[in-house]
Write a structure and sequence with these properties.
This protein has two helices and ten strands. It is mainly beta. It is globular. About 25% of the residues are buried.
């Protein structure tokens, strides 16, 4: 995977120099797991992803990829052109018996040509925390 400057004004994007086939694991959206209260106090929320929608109930956690994230933080949004599908990854049960989400894996939803920008639909289910109303 390579980070590149997009030509359409979106800023940075991600692409691959080889074909990626449907269903292939591409990368993971990882970062620092923090509470919504902690996130509200941060000046830059550009790389925040809410985690509560994966759990099916309100869990006040977000993933902040700004300082501790990998290359996936540069994957841009597209509704019609999305070629990646986010999938939550859960940790094993903790001593308290709960599951905690700490990563989001991105898989190819269709064959992706070499140098095609990698995109996913932030949408309603996979939304950024600040966009949640």
């Amino acid at each position: 995977l390579e980070v590149f400057k997009t030509q359409d004004g979106k800023g940075w994007g991600i692409r691959c120099t080889e074909t990626i086939y449907t269903g292939a694991f591409v990368c993971e959206y990882s970062g620092e797991v923090i509470t919504c209260d902690e996130e509200d106090g941060r000046a830059n929320d550009q790389y925040i992803m809410a985690l509560d929608h994966f759990l099916g109930h309100s869990a006040p956690l977000v993933l902040d990829a700004r300082l501790a994230g990998g290359v996936a933080r540069f994957v841009n949004h597209s509704q019609e052109g999305a070629n990646l599908l986010p999938q939550p990854v859960f940790t094993p049960h903790s001593g308290a018996g709960s599951q905690a989400l700490y990563r989001v894996a991105l898989f190819a939803s269709r064959d992706i040509r070499p140098f095609e920008e990698l995109l996913f639909d932030y949408g309603d289910q996979y939304t950024w925390h600040k966009a949640v109303v």
